[in-house]
Amino acid sequence: MNEATWLEVALNGPWSRSRQPNIPVTADEIVQAAVACADEGAAIVHFHAYDPATGRQRDDYEIYAPIIERIRARADVICYGTLPFAGSIDAPSPLNPAQRFGAVDRLVRAGLIEWSVVDPGSTNISHHADIAAGKEGFVYANPESHIRYGLQLAQQHRITPSYAIYEPGFMRLGAALHRAYPAAPVPIYRLMFSQHIAFGFPPADWALDAYLRLLQLEQPGAPWMVAGLAVELGTLVEAAVERGGHVRVGLEDAPMGCTLDNASLVRQARGRIERAGGRVADAAVVRARLRRGAVTGA
User: Helix (H, G, I), strand (E, B), or coil: what is residue 27?
Assistant: First the structure.
């Protein structure tokens, strides 16, 4: 344990309030939640933008930009959004890479974001409760052409790719593709665990160890964090601190129907980090580490 622990909060996700009633949806709610989480120690804020008219996720620059500007005017945090799904019920046809990364491209050109989602793989997202009820999940699709496009943007603009690792194959493909774009900054590997969705590993020490052994083979020295969807991380918070990793919490990641707000989840995580002997990093520390990693590859 040599570095301060990065604490990220994922404020809402794609769930809508039907699944996660306490998520912030409006611009005012997102800004208020982000600032409250920064006050509790979060250096990184991730959120999904929602259309104020329909209440559905909409990943447009015009929605993201003013929210990020308002957050950054009140707190020194690293903000980033997400990508629209490659195939969405809100899109008349499947989105191509330029369409999916359109807002990212404009946000980085405006100097508003420092990293971006570039998830290196595809998987099924099916809740255990839905499976039992006969309700089909969906495919979270990231074709290789989309991953390559994201890495090209990262290489061009020197923004950090944020890899969500849902399955071990995501790590292997992500590392291999990053080697094809060597000028792109070293990715952050967000190791995804779940108890209530049928992907990847449960939040267990043996599962974390398996991911870290694979990461040591594929991209040694790359920064990583524990996270997930519909998950209670449990002792993985302490394990991440002990092993030199980082932590993400928030209502995007919490089990559905979570009764806490984002600031409370961040406060709890910070307490666990500190009780494990760690300390939380501020945004300046995160940026310095990323600059160092971009130069050294470690």
Answer: helix
In angstroms, the CA 271 to CA 251 distance is 18
Q: Is residue 127 part of a domain?
A: yes
Give the domain extent around 219: 7-296
Instruction: Write the pLDDT tens digit of every residue in 96-134.
Output: 999 999 999 999 999 999 999 999 999 999 999 999 999
User: Residue 288: which residues within 8 A CB-CB, separation 6 or more?
Assistant: none
| pLDDT higher than threshold 80 for residue 298 | no
Residue 140 and residue 85 in contact, taking contact as beta carbons nearer than 8 Å: yes
Alpha-carbon span 297 to 55, nearest angstrom:
41
**1 falls within a domain:** no
DSSP state for residue 255 in the 8-state scheme = P
Nearest CA to 285 out of 77, 135, 9 is that of 77
Q: By the 8 A CB rule, do 192 and 165 touch?
A: yes
Query: Cβ–Cβ contacts within 10 Å for residue 251, how many?
Result: 25
Residue 138 forms part of a structural domain: yes
Q: What is the dihedral of CA 33, 240, 273, 279, to 10 degrees?
A: -90
The per-residue DSSP string of 186-204 comes to PPEEEEEE-SSBSSSB-S-
